[in-house]
Design goal:
single chain; mainly alpha; 2 helices; rod-shaped
Amino acid sequence: MATEDHGYSTGAVAFAFLAGAITGAVTGAIGGASTALLLAPQTGAETRDMLKGYAKKAEETVLEKAKEAKVTVESALEKGREFIGDKKGVLSAAFEAGREAMKKERA
């Protein structure tokens, strides 16, 4: 079971993962297009159509990964807000307890 805490937030890890996935998708699309151009001789019109198809597929992949990243970041932000809210409540209670202790000490 992984209970180790290395100081990285869930959002940061997810963002790094998705950034790598997007980079991989774009690199793969470029590599595939380059290989196809070098290994499959065809007319200029066919090549342009093929490149348009690769570009469209790469664009769709990037947009999909960006949506996933947005959901992940929003989730991490919500968890952060909840954490801050919880800690704010704890601090408020501690300050109030301190005030009450000071009042009793002064009385």
